[in-house]
């Protein structure tokens, strides 16, 4: 199981949170990647290095030598808590890449080359997926590390326009010395609203045609824990990587507890479906930040609320009420001074992480969304305040569920077998949305609309060329959806209160 590299989002604290849900026996089965680091900036700019990679307290003024002691270990790549770890770079100069890699090699298990980033910034900087046109350079980049580094070199690539070309590409990368390849089953053009589904059949083809000892990690389409095993089975890959699925649900790699052993953190409905409670995950996340990043004890917290707890006579306070009690939904007035210029990657990432983690909850509780939006990087009391609001909202949700569970059960949701039978994954995400949907207090994936659906709901507009092609396609294939009628997918989103105006901005997909 592999936690994907994510710019500004697969930082130390998030990796720790993700790892924390693994059982002690399975924790070593989780490999994590750092966010992509820019090799040239990493070598040329000490501040960039300090702000993005913090393996020691004193920083890295020069690449550590093998014989140097490493006395003041801090966060990234800590041998006791943050391994296995691969550090990922983007680069287009073999010398710069090697120099950058030398800084990190004592703190990681491999150095990975990003060959997947499809963003405009990668086009401008000539890295990521835009190296696909220059196989000779890719070879040199990988080979340079292969010949000169003490840890293995690996690469994360996208699929190309055909499976044969992808195989040739993978072979070239392996021949340069890559110890393993991660294959994202989408092409470079599949980004943003055009992301669509990853093509596992290409991965299967690679598995069948590459030597059996070549290690392949599959990437794409992992929304839930069970998808990991479907992917292993369908592709024959050796490992499965998740990015967005992990952002929305950092427990995705963890095996759910058996029925009857939910404990306080896991919630299961009477239909047997469940997930980790958002207040529980949020608490763990904050506590990791206190312990490792801020290096101070977390506040003492009462046990998480359970509906079986004795109820006070007074009616439960709603999140909105408790926000008003705090004084017009402002964080407590008296609090520690803000760290205005926080540069810690772990503190800068808190707000975006919470927007992902809490998405269904803050779509319903706008006051909490606003409180989160106002919380600045490093302002820990502000995030503690959001946590209190979340705890109160979850408590209300749990009580409401207990008083009327049917309200939360969608009788139109077909059972798993029926879903499989009806699932035309390329055409509609409706069945997937239904299968993934949980009550709003439970961590759950966000199912992106497919490009076709994005077109229908107007969030994707086509270039003239694409429009002409689509019209031709429509003329031959027949239009499936009636014009003017709401798609089923839109209806589902609206039922969740996810009208477009309320949708939280998604993080960029950078690889
Ligand atoms: C917020 C975000 C940041 C990302 N940053 C990187 C990155 O730094 N390096 C990289 O190779 N891929 C990056 N990616 C791409 C993912 O690693 C992954 O290949 C892609 O999201 C497909 O996996 P998924 O379907 O599980 O999301 C990023 C994706 C997201 C959502």
TrEMBL record:
InterPro entries: Aldolase_TIM (IPR013785), DUS-like_FMN-bd (IPR035587), tRNA_hU_synthase_CS (IPR018517). It catalyses: 5,6-dihydrouridine(16) in tRNA + NADP(+) = uridine(16) in tRNA + NADPH + H(+); a 5,6-dihydrouridine in mRNA + NADP(+) = a uridine in mRNA + NADPH + H(+); 5,6-dihydrouridine(17) in tRNA + NADP(+) = uridine(17) in tRNA + NADPH + H(+); 5,6-dihydrouridine(16) in tRNA + NAD(+) = uridine(16) in tRNA + NADH + H(+). Residues 299-346, 406-425, 461-511 are annotated as: Disordered. Residues 299-315 have a biased composition (Pro residues). GO terms for biological process: mRNA processing. Residues 468-489, 495-505 have a biased composition (Basic and acidic residues). Its cofactor is FMN. Keywords: Flavoprotein, FMN, mRNA processing, NAD, NADP, Oxidoreductase, tRNA processing. Its EC number is 1.3.1.88. It holds the Pfam family Dus. The keyword Oxidoreductase applies. Transmembrane segments: none annotated. The keyword Oxidoreductase applies. It comes from the Eukaryota. Residues 2-255 form the DUS-like FMN-binding domain. GO terms for molecular function: flavin adenine dinucleotide binding; tRNA dihydrouridine synthase activity. Catalyzes the synthesis of dihydrouridine, a modified base found in the D-loop of most tRNAs. Specifically modifies U47 in cytoplasmic tRNAs. Catalyzes the synthesis of dihydrouridine in some mRNAs, thereby affecting their translation. PANTHER family: TRNA-DIHYDROURIDINE SYNTHASE (PTHR11082), TRNA-DIHYDROURIDINE(16_17) SYNTHASE [NAD(P)(+)]-LIKE (PTHR11082:SF5). Belongs to the Dus family. Dus1 subfamily. This is tRNA-dihydrouridine(16/17) synthase [NAD(P)(+)].
């Amino acid at each position: 199981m592999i936690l994907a590299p994510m710019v500004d989002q697969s930082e130390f604290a998030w990796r720790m949170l993700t790892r924390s849900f693994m059982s002690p026996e399975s924790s070593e089965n989780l490999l994590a990647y750092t966010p992509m680091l820019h090799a040239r900036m990493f070598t040329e700019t000490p501040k960039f290095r300090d702000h993005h990679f913090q393996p020691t307290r004193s920083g890295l003024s020069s690449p550590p030598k093998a014989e140097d002691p490493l006395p003041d270990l801090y966060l990234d790549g800590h041998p006791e808590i943050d391994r296995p770890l691969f550090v990922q770079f983007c680069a287009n100069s073999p010398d710069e890449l090697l120099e950058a890699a030398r800084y990190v090699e004592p703190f990681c298990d491999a150095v990975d080359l990003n060959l997947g980033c499809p963003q405009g910034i990668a086009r401008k900087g000539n890295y990521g997926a835009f190296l696909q046109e220059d196989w000779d350079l890719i070879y040199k980049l990988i080979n340079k590390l292969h010949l000169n580094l003490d840890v293995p070199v690996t690469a994360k690539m996208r699929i190309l326009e055909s499976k044969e070309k992808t195989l040739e590409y993978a072979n070239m990368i392996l021949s340069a010395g890559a110890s393993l390849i991660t294959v994202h089953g989408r092409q470079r053009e599949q980004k943003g609203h055009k992301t669509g589904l990853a093509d596992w059949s290409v991965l299967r083809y690679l598995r069948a045609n590459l030597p059996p000892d070549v290690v392949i990690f599959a990437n794409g389409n992992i929304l839930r824990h069970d998808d990991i095993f479907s992917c292993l089975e369908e592709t024959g890959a050796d490992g499965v990587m998740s990015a967005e699925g992990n952002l929305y649900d950092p427990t995705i790699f963890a095996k759910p507890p058996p029925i009857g052993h939910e404990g306080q953190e896991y919630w299961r409905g009477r239909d047997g479906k469940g997930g980790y409670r958002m207040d529980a995950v949020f608490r763990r996340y904050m506590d990791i930040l206190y312990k490792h990043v801020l290096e101070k004890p977390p506040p003492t917290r009462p046990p998480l609320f359970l509906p079986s707890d004795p109820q006070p006579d007074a009616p439960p306070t709603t999140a909105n009420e408790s926000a008003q009690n705090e004084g017009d939904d402002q964080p407590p007035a008296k609090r520690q001074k803000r760290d205005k210029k926080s540069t810690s990657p772990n503190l800068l990432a808190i707000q975006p992480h919470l927007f992902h983690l809490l998405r269904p909850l803050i779509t319903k509780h706008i006051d909490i969304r606003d409180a989160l939006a106002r919380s600045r990087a490093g302002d820990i009391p502000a995030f503690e305040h959001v946590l209190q609001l979340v705890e109160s909202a979850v408590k209300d949700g749990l009580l409401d569920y207990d008083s009327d569970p049917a309200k939360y059960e969608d009788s139109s949701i077909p059972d798993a077998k029926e879903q499989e039978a009806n699932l035309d994954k390329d055409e509609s995400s409706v069945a997937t949305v239904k299968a993934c949907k949980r009550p709003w207090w439970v961590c759950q994936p966000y199912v992106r609309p497919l490009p076709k659906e994005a077109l229908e709901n107007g969030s994707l507009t086509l270039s003239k060329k694409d429009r002409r092609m689509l019209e031709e396609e429509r003329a031959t294939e027949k239009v499936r959806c009636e014009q003017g009628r709401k798609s089923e997918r839109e209806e589902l989103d609206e039922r969740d209160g996810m009208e477009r105006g309320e949708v939280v901005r998604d993080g960029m997909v950078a690889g």
